[in-house]
Request: fold
Amino acid sequence: MDIKINRCSWPGETLLMIEYHDKEWGVPLHDDLKHFEFLVLDAFQAGLSWLIVLNKREAFRIAFDGFDYSIIANYTQAKIDLLNNDASIIRNKAKIKATVSNAIAFMEIQKEFGSFDRFIWRFTNFKTKINYCENMTQIPVSSPESIEMSKELKRRGFKFVGPTICYAYMQAAGMVNDHLTSCFRYNDCC
Reply:
């Protein structure tokens, strides 16, 4: 007998999306390397489906040196040209260039705050903001926190960090719990 698991509807029936939803999305994150990975992936997702990004995630990991911001910050033009011609990733020159400059800005924040994690969680007062959404239409695409985060990241030199991208990042990093209240992951991510 198959037991139906109640989960958010957005993963659909795609195994990769289900795995991401069930294991990563909304889990409070406190690792700087993972924070940078999520920022990169959310920036590349802008204008595309999340499934496209997930399908290319491992290729991104290889192409961008494991999302190691200290390596990415020192990319040469030759490396950027290789990335611009790498068919295994999403080839968007502006987003690739932004990833490099974002790595530099990311490390500046680390110097100032001791870690990016300590800086970024300030936007939710160091705790997960819990929403009580019963259906997908109730899930917002931005919030006062993501708007403020976007302004501050842009002020610090980040690119591709608009309020919607910041909100998607907050969802992924567990800064906001937008699992539906009926989802089996809801209580785990509170």
Observations:
- The first helix runs from residue 15 to 23.
- The mean pLDDT is 96.
- The longest strand covers residues 129-130.
- The chain is about 50% helix and 0% strand.
